[in-house]
Amino acid sequence: MKALLVIDVQNGLVNKGNFQEEISRIEKVIEDFRENKEPVLFMRHLDDTENSPLYKGSAGSELHNSIKKYADHIIEKQTPNSFHNTDLEDILKDLGVTHLFITGFNTEYCCLFTAITAFDRGYKVTFLEDATATVNTAETYEMKGLDIRDFVGSVLYVSNVIEVLEFEEYVEEYKLNKSVED
Q1: Contact 35/177 with Cβ under 8 angstroms?
Q2: Residue 96, phi-psi category: left (phi > 0), alpha (psi -120 to 50), beta (remainder)
Q3: What angle do CA 173, 89, 71 make, to 5 degrees?
């Protein structure tokens, strides 16, 4: 069984930039999974540091309004790895999930760490590259011209163990509900 993991689409991250395209793609994938009665799980990162945009109890730590209405299963975490000290794996096993699709924030942290860990734990993993986003930039890493999302997608693709797709490739390869595409 397939499941969709929506990682850290929270106010404290989404409100730091213009992520309308990414949010739109994430929402379309959520709708597709829900329409096909496949599980959609939401990760919510909570920080203990008061000045963090994801400080637990703050408005920034809440799921973004664009996807909040879909959140039936919310799992809280405190590290970039969605499996670390959470019940994610137990939930996936209970649901019979063998194939995990990854979307969300931040591409180079929580999405990347979770994708690698999921593969390491025996899941087939599909990383939807343009249905992830990051608040960081090339300047953050002092690497002029760096396209973070493309770099992470390329690293995972070249690994030859994690499937990396753009949204349109997902539509062609997996999407059962073509009406959600519009």
Answers
A1: yes
A2: left
A3: 70
Q: Are 168 and 129 in contact (CB under 8 A)?
A: no
Residue 103 phi/psi, 5-degree rounding, is -140, 165
CA angle 116, 117, 120 (to 5 degrees): 90
Q: For residues 77 and 26, give the distance between their C-alpha atoms in angstroms, rounded to a whole number.
A: 20
Read off the pTM. Answer: 0.93
Half-sphere exposure for 16 (CA within 13 Å, toward CB): 16
65-85 confidence digits (pLDDT tens) = 999 999 889 999 999 999 999
Domains and CATH numbers, the chain: 2-181 (3.40.50.850)
Please count the other Cβ atoms lying within 10 Å of the Cβ belonging to residue 109: 18
Cβ atoms 46, 8 nearer than 8 A: no
